Amino acid sequence: MKTYYLFILSIFLLLISCKQESKTIKPGEIWADNNGIHINAHGGGILFNEGSYYWFGEHKVEGKKGNKAMVGVHCYSSKNLVDWKDEGIALEVIKDNPQHDITEGCVLERPKVIYNVQTKKFVMWFHLELKNRGYDAARAGVAISDKVTGPFEFVKSFRPNAGHWPKNVKEIHKQPVGTDVLDKYCGGLGCLPAHPDSVNILGRDFENGQMARDQNLFVDDDGKAYHIYSSEENSTLHISQLTDDYLSESGNFTRVFSERYMEAPAVFKHKSKYFLIASDCTGWDPNAARLAWAPSIFGPWEELGNPCVGDEANLTFRSQSTFVTPVQGKKDAFIYLGDRWKPENAIDGRYICLPFQFNKSGIPYLKWMDEWSLDIFE
Ligand code: DGJ
To answer: 200 and 221 in contact (C-beta within 8 Å)?
Structure first.
């Protein structure tokens, strides 16, 4: 009899030990890595590669200085999207050459990494502002690595699509516009408030390449990759197909959300539909997110309004989008990753990580949760 009870007890204990408590994500709180240090990967993006997730983002230092790139791009790895291991700096800024495009003190934002199956290279794109030039350089930067965690080697920086008109160019864009007209609308920090379509920024930048600030990458099911960037003084997004090696723009691109001043774009695909989440253009301050969908990556894109519901929805829960990651092995599972910026002490920026839920019409929405686990997905 005693053996029988002991047997039952040991089965019970075994069952308890097997029932893993699901790890939770607490949006907006300190998110500790394997060393107990708050993850330092702002404006980041996530790549899934060979069974692991890799989170790349801007490494920030303390204080306002952290708004400049003093270190580089930080990488973390994870098997479950909750526990992250520090993999170190994947791309370092250059410390011994003040003339280098990515010299220490430049602005290097929103890095994203994709894997090219053909070349077997990991390719990183980022928004680059040359040192001491504010935000006027508006360039795209590219780096490459054989290994997912780096070290990435800087390849080049440039303004995209020089000498190419977008697929949906209007005749008016091709006409030269005097700098006096441009200065009227585009002096100082940008073209706020919205400039009329006749102010031809696209045409101004045709020869030397289009402005590229907030940016993201998207790889479609057919392996074609796209660069999505805020252009034309932030007034308009461009969606631009990359070359097969993912290292350059192909020249095949389109203008979308003209005059809508969208920043922080992130694209994902669900049931053959393309979704894009982005923000308005209010510097480091949060604003209401915008969702849009399209039957094809090049559009036509239709705006669906703010996908957030509940308290602080009008501020995207005090965050700005940076990436949407599909969850491997789960159905209809996409996670929103956003930044709660702290420009006064950049290193303390927080991450707002929430699951997308879908309404009956198949439209994704975001609801605040203090704490959640991946069990939310089927
Ligand atoms: C908003 C952008 O989304 C950020 O990446 C950063 O460029 C800030 N503006 C700078 O003010």
So the answer is: no
Pocket of ligand 1 (CB under 6 A): 43, 109-110, 214, 263-264, 283-284, 320
Atom of ligand 1 nearest to the CA of 109: 5
- The total domain count for the chain is 1
Kindly state whether residue 18 falls inside one of the protein's structural domains.
no
- How high is the pLDDT of residue 12? 54
Residue 29 falls inside a structural domain: yes
Q: Could you give phi then psi for residue 12, rounded to 5 degrees?
A: -60, -45
137 domain residue, yes or no: yes
Q: Which of 112, 129, 213, 285 to mutate to test the pocket of ligand 1 (most atoms within 8 A of CB)?
A: 213
Residue having the nearest C-alpha atom to atom 11 of ligand 1: 283
Report how far apart, in Å, the C-alpha atoms of 250 and of each of 51, 165, 166, 370 are.
30, 12, 11, 43
Q: Which residue range is the domain that position 319 belongs to?
A: 25-372
Q: What pTM did the predictor assign?
A: 0.92
Ligand 1 midpoint to CA 319 (Å): 12
In a domain, 287, yes or no: yes
Across the 378 residues of the chain, what is the mean pLDDT of every consecutive 10-residue run?
A: 60 50 92 98 98 98 98 98 98 98 98 98 98 96 98 98 95 71 57 55 92 98 98 95 98 95 97 97 97 98 98 98 98 97 98 98 97 95
